[in-house]
Design goal:
The chain is mainly alpha-helical. Helix content is about 65%, strand content about 10%. Strand 2, helix 8 and strand 3 form a beta-alpha-beta unit. The longest helix has 30 residues, at about 140-170.
Amino acid sequence: MQVKTLLKLSIAAAVVTIAMKSAAWWITDSVGLLSDAMESFVNLASALFAIAMVTIAQRPADADHPFGHTKAEYFSSGFEGLLIAGAAAGIIWAAAHRFTDPQPLQSLGWGLTLAVVSSALNWLLASRMMSASREHRSIVLEADARHLYTDVWTSAGVVVGLVLVHLTGWLWLDPVLAIGVALNILREGAHLAWRSVDGLMDSAVEPEVRAQIDCALAQFEHPTIRFDHLVTRRAGQRRFVDLHMHMPASWTLGRAAALRTSVEQALMSEVPGLRASIQLLPSDVEAHFNDVADTP
C-alpha cells in the first residue's frame, strides 16, 4: 500500500476517533477522556500536514534541488512533535482546573466503550503503517504510526484509570490521568522532533543499510582494487553513498569506467534507490580533501 493511501486512511481514522472520543468525553465529563480526544485532533492535523510533505518529497530533482526533495518528510515529523507539545500543554491546563473543581463522572460504561473501540481502530492502523514505514523507509509513516501507538497506550491508561475512579470514588484520579497522558505524549513529541532534526543534519545510513553496501563492495575485493573514504547519508526515503575506488594506473579509462558501472549496479541492486558517487583514482594516489591547505 502506498504512503499517501495510508496517510489518507490515517485522516479518516482520526476523524472517526475524534467523533467517538469527543462523544465519550461529552457523556462522561471526564477530563481524562478529553485529553484522549485532544490527542486525536493532533493525529488529524499531523496526517494532513504529512500528506502535503509527502507530495513535496515525491517531486523529481530539479535545478534548484539536484538531490531531490525527499528531506521534506522530516518537516512532517518535526511539525507533529510541536503539535504534540501544544496538545500536552492544553491537557495539563484543563486538568489543573479539575483539581480545584472536581466533577462527578457520568455514563462511564458508554464512554469507556467508545474509547476502547476507537483505540482498537488506531492500533490496527498503526500496525499497518509501521510495517509500511519499514518497507518504504518513510519517516512520515513511522512518525504517524508511533503517535498512534502512543494514542493506544494512553487510551488504555485512561480506561483503566476511569475504572478505578468508578470503583473507588477518587475524583482527583481523573485529572491525574490527564496529566499522565500529557507527559507521555510530550515524551513522544520530543522523540519525533529529535528524529526530524537528526535527519536534517545528514545522518549516516542505518547500520543494516551500511552492511548491505559493504556486502556489495566485498564482491569486488582484489589485491589491485580497493575502496576508501566511504561516506553515506540519508534524506527521507533516499540513500546516498560517496567513495573512492583505487585501481592500477595502467588501466585504460574504458576498463576503469566499466568496473565502476558494475560496482554502481551492484550497490543499487543491494540497496534499491541508492545513489552512488564513485571517484576513480590510481592505486598509488591518495585523496587529501580533509587536509589543511598549505598557505604561501
